[in-house]
Amino acid sequence: DGTVTYRFDPEVLPKLLPATEDGRRRNAAALAEQIERSRTVGCPMLLLRGEHSDILSPDEATATAGMFPHGRVVELPGTTHLVPTDDPRAFRSAVFTFLDAELPPHR
Question: How far is CA 48 from its chain centroid?
Fold first, then answer.
């Protein structure tokens, strides 16, 4: 019927997270480095969040965008974490709205 369906096994997620003290320490160091690098990004950054995402909470989205000097969050209603496939028109509209606001006018 042309629809796209994604499936995710929630039991996989704990396997992706660091389970040892060394793994947690390396993860924390990598996160600190990511935050430091994010602060040096000079261009605008758009984070699109699906309203019903079970992976990225509203607070996490705000915190992530806040790492960037020019970060912005747009939450798209009625979508999950898979925003582009859940609502391609809303995705495209949000991206074009962002680009129109951030890019200089065409000459």
Answer: 6
